[in-house]
Write a structure and sequence with these properties.
Number of strands: 35
Number of helices: 38
Largest sheet: 6 strands, mixed
Structural class: alpha/beta
Strand content: 15-25%
Shape: globular
Distance between the termini: 85 Å
Helix content: 25-40%
Length: 1016
């Protein structure tokens, strides 16, 4: 027993040990701090190690003798130590990562950075957190699998900030996820002034006499029911409330618009939202009964806490009266504002027309009649299709006959007023043929009929209608999402909707000095709220998001933008001692804004946190305290630590990354630029979002880079204007482009292909093999094998999506999904097929000794060798390899691919198709997730495309790719309202010389150190 207590004493410190001295016992911390040149604690330098140990031993001994020994030493580990990490392609990696530092994991794509950062360190942190829950709570969650690692020591609570966290919910906005909008709602609810939406006059509070006079004037000799609202939009069964109301002597209540007698044990559905009013009195309004009316109204106002309703039983209309807010001119009264009055996610604030979405799905004439050259019989009215012998075509035939036309007359030759009547309805046909009475009935019209179907209970019908609708700005709220009453509460002359559409930089300016523009009472209430709002806006500005607004839907944000919003939120939480792991936060960020991001990460570190960033950006690597370079290759060729240390130590390591950082390796430029075809695609007068009447010329047959700071208008010009125009022209797409005047030069191209970073599939069933179409060829190859023919197997036998050859326990998924109710679903390997997806008989068919599952588990690189004599399969797999995805397996689940990888799978799919040399490719930041070496491969692929005569347009911030373009269009000069114009255009050298805008400055620096390759 004595032995045990001595051992435990030597391993622990006294709870009473002074904090400064406990901190001092960090022998390695001093070395780390000196190494990084930051935060060297005085305590470490001041106190000799021996002295600390002796004092600690003495204090432990005293504490032990008093029975006060409480637990392990309060010594913060100087390192996160990982021993034997083997997750995915990691080769038994052991590493010490200094805590309290900004650490960058870099290396070629697929080398194992994410496997170490997210699948090992973060997964273990998450698992340990789960283990702190009770056994009962864990029974709902299921056990998180331990990552394949021997042990990890010195791990803090971990927060992961990834790119794939963007919400697809249309109600989620920048304002709601940053909580700034919640504070704004509270600010408006407590300090805003109300104005009438009818007259624009300031609302006043009514006295009881004014209310009585109004009723006597407007409801003279009418029956009225006087009501006192007691419940407004809340859930509950309200049994006790009904009992109390009955005790007060009232016999009736109005529940959700229905007058009811109060009965014993009366209650309502506790899970639904209710409005409940007490029926105070029922009377006929007469001047001589003023005393009764006055008493009833006062009673109603007392029970309704200052509010009352009168109901006209004949019309069922109610009039709201309040001791609080009312427009004396019109009698319009508002409820006293509450935070949910300004919430577009609450029925009490949302616009009733669009339900708080800001846009409505409208069936338009263009979507119903996409091609007016066609006649009705040939399918000119798309929802009806081609002629069939059904009643609707017969009715249309009769109507057209009366106007000397027929079903075979092209729509463009029909009189416009007749087309209008066919689409929107004909009240009656006066000159109908009496012999065909059934057709003389009023004709409803195609569009009203389709609108009725939008309310259908059938999901199939609603989906069918969806293809004929287009999203348009809500005519009621004009896109502000709130009901008109909410938009008439103003602060310093602005309603909450106007604040939410301001750029964050404008919003920050508006809040500056706001106290001087508010009354003393408003200032008293708003002081703390303003502090919180300014602080949160400040954090967003700090990470370079000054061009966003609070109204912006989260669905429209890029991965990098949503990640930086989460980063700003984390800085705002002011947590200490946390390990943050981030996945390429510099995505979508111009070099100019990189400094801000690096400062934000250093701020997070300086609070007392450890920050690990998986990153390829040169500036981020150079500003790190510690760098881990993982490689040397991708996939099976990676998984080793090839270099570690400070950025200066990495420089001399000789690794692939260090060669690019030190200038030994270069992405070379072409001295001679492509001449192109001499034709141009000209977009004139683009003025959507922040674009200022831009006319952009795109020279065809070249590699074009569209550049500019974040928020300058690149996406507005390309994604939201140019691409929808081309898509409508070539493929009749429904998506409407932003406002523009005209486009010229469409005849010089034959199709448009956009390669963005959206996932290639949202389910584990989607993978690179299925997306590129190579899996179809592979299944046909297996079906043509002698063994398959003997057994009668067709290509369907080798599909994991249809019955026959797949494992039916997991239905070919290889994984079973266990639903966790209130937590994310957990995926576990199928117990029948052990994750192999197919049944035993299917797996017995082999090609070169490999089953269909073995082929899916093969890396692209291996598959190139394996299928070298199968040209149809090889072409597609070879392209995947060329774009730098040799490390992916053919069957890798789409859900595990990063945005950059998904984009390169799409790019490879397009490259493997036979092109005509007149294709217009649009790529959105193709360098996402790419190492310098991968960018070099990508540049070669894009050059190959452009050399064939195609036009390749890239929206890009990465200077390595911008400098190899033939033509640059730089948009800016700033983001948001300060952007939207073309600042410079021409070859990279011309843009650099122009010295206009931010891109020019950075490009000039890059070109100074770049090397040229003489390629004709």
């Amino acid at each position: 027993m004595a032995k045990k207590s001595t051992a435990s004493a030597s391993a622990t410190t006294a709870a009473a040990a002074p904090k400064a001295k406990r901190k001092a016992a960090q022998p390695a911390a001093a070395a780390v701090a000196d190494h990084a040149g930051h935060h060297t604690t005085e305590a470490v330098q001041a106190v000799p190690r021996a002295e600390v140990v002796n004092e600690a031993v003495i204090e432990q001994h005293v504490a032990a003798t008093r029975g006060q020994l409480t637990g392990p030493a309060d010594l913060e580990a100087p390192y996160i130590e990982v021993y034997g990490a083997r997750e995915h392609n990691l080769k038994n990696v052991s590493v010490q990562i200094p805590r309290g530092r900004l650490v960058v994991f870099t290396g070629i794509s697929g080398s194992g950075k994410s496997s170490l950062a997210f699948d090992t360190i973060y997964a273990e942190g998450q698992r340990r957190y789960m283990e702190t829950f009770s056994a009962y709570a864990r029974s709902f969650m299921g056990g998180l699998e331990r990552p394949d690692v021997d042990k990890i020591e010195g791990l803090s609570p971990v927060i992961s900030i990834e790119q794939k966290t963007t919400s697809r919910n249309p109600r989620s906005t920048v304002g709601t996820i940053t909580e700034i909008y919640d504070f704004l709602r509270l600010l408006y609810a407590r300090t805003a002034e109300a104005f009438s939406y009818a007259t624009g006059q300031k609302m006043i509070r009514q006295s009881d006499d004014q209310i009585i006079n109004y009723i006597l004037k407007h409801y003279k000799d009418k029956k009225l029911v006087v009501l006192a609202p007691v419940v407004k939009g809340r859930k509950g069964h309200y049994r006790e409330l009904f009992q109390q109301v009955a005790k007060l002597g009232f016999t009736k209540v109005r529940v959700d618009g229905e007058l009811l007698d109060i009965t014993p044990k009366m209650q309502v559905d506790r899970y639904k939202i209710h409005d409940i009013e007490i029926v105070i009195d029922r009377l006929v309004v007469k001047e001589e009964d003023r005393f009764r009316l006055s008493g009833s109204m006062q009673n109603a106002l007392t029970h309704g806490k200052g509010t009352a309703l009168v109901l006209d039983p004949d019309t069922q209309k109610t009039q709201f009266f309040s001791r609080f807010l009312m427009d004396p001119a019109t009698g319009i009264a508002y409820d006293d504002p509450a935070p949910n009055t300004f919430s577009f996610n609450s029925p009490y604030g949302a616009c009733p027309t669009c339900n708080g979405l800001g846009e409505v799905q409208e069936i338009t004439e263009d979507s119903v009649m996409p091609d007016k050259k066609l006649s009705i019989s040939r399918g000119g009215i798309a929802p009806l299709g081609e002629y069939r012998d059904i009643w609707i075509f017969q009715q249309l035939g009769v109507i057209l006959k009366k106007h000397k036309a027929s079903l075979s007359t092209p729509l463009e030759k029909l009189p416009p007023d007749l087309v209008e009547r066919l689409l929107h309805g004909i009240p009656e046909e006066e000159d109908a043929d009496p012999k065909k009475a059934s057709y003389s009935e009023p004709f409803e019209g195609i569009i009203p009929f389709l609108r009725r179907q939008m309310e259908s209970d059938s999901e199939n019908i609603r989906e069918w209608i969806q293809q004929y609708t287009q999203a348009q700005e809500c005519p009621e709220c004009h896109g502000f999402r709130l009901k008109k009453e909410s938009l008439h509460f103003k602060l310093d002359g602005r309603h909450i909707g106007e604040l939410s559409i301001m750029d964050l930089s404008q919003l920050a300016s508006w809040f500056e000095g706001l106290e001087d523009r508010l009354t003393e009472r408003q200032n008293l209430i708003a002081r703390e709220l303003l502090k919180e709002i300014r602080k949160r806006i400040g954090f967003l500005l700090e990470v370079g998001l000054d061009y966003l607004n609070l109204h912006r839907s989260v669905r429209t944000l890029s991965g990098g933008e949503s990640q930086r919003i989460r980063l700003a939120t984390q800085i705002g939480t002011q947590l200490v001692g946390v390990l943050y792991i981030m996945d390429e936060p510099s995505i979508g960020l111009h070099q100019r804004d990189n400094e801000r991001l690096i400062k934000a990460l250093q701020h997070l570190r300086d609070l007392g946190n450890s920050v690990i960033v998986v990153e390829h950006d040169k500036d981020m690597i150079l500003h790190a305290d510690h760098v881990l370079d993982i490689g040397p290759g991708a996939g099976i060729h990676g998984g080793h630590i090839v270099a570690e240390g400070s950025p200066t130590e990495i420089f001399s390591s000789g690794s692939l990354t260090s060669q690019y950082l030190s200038g030994q390796k270069h992405i070379e430029l072409r001295k001679k630029k492509r001449k192109g075809e001499g034709n141009e695609l000209v977009l004139k007068g683009a003025r959507g979002h922040n674009l200022k009447n831009v006319t952009a010329k795109f020279p065809l047959g070249k590699l074009i880079a569209v550049t500019g700071v974040s928020g300058s208008g690149k996406s507005s010009l390309i994604h939201d204007t140019l691409y929808p125009i081309l898509n409508q022209h070539f493929f009749n797409s429904k998506r409407e482009p932003l406002a523009y005047d005209k486009i010229e030069g469409l005849e010089f191209i034959d199709k448009v292909i956009e390669v963005d970073q959206s996932p290639i599939g949202r389910t584990p069933r989607s993978n690179p093999a299925t997306y590129t179409g190579v899996f179809t060829e592979i299944r046909q190859l297996f079906a043509s094998l002698p063994e398959a023919k003997i057994r009668g197997y067709g290509p369907g036998r080798f599909s994991f999506n249809v019955k026959g050859g797949r494992c039916e326990t997991c239905e070919g998924a290889g994984m079973r999904t266990i639903e966790m109710n209130f937590l994310p679903d957990v995926h576990v390997p199928c117990e029948t097929c052990k994750g192999r997806r197919y049944n035993r008989e299917t797996l017995e068919v082999r090609f070169k000794g490999k089953s269909i599952t073995d082929v899916l588990d093969m890396t692209v690189e291996k598959a190139v060798e394996f299928f070298e004599f199968q040209p149809r399969i090889l072409r597609k797999i070879q392209t995947l390899n060329e774009v730098g995805l040799g490390y992916l397996t053919l069957g890798q689940q789409a859900t595990t691919l990063s945005g950059g990888e998904a984009q390169r799978v799409k790019l490879a799919t397009e490259l493997s198709k036979k092109d005509t040399g007149k294709t217009f490719y649009i790529l959105d930041e193709p360098t996402t997730g790419l190492h310098f070496e991968d960018i070099s491969h990508l540049a070669a692929v894009l050059h190959k495309l452009a050399d064939k005569g195609n036009t390749v347009l890239i929206i890009e911030h990465n200077l390595d790719l911008i400098k190899v373009a033939d033509h640059i269009i730089d948009i800016g000069p700033e983001g948001g309202a300060g952007g939207g114009t073309i600042v410079a255009q021409g070859t990279p050298e011309q843009v650099a010389k122009a010295a206009k805008g931010h891109t020019s400055r950075f490009l000039a620096e890059e070109l100074k150190t770049s090397k040229y390759a003489d390629v004709a």
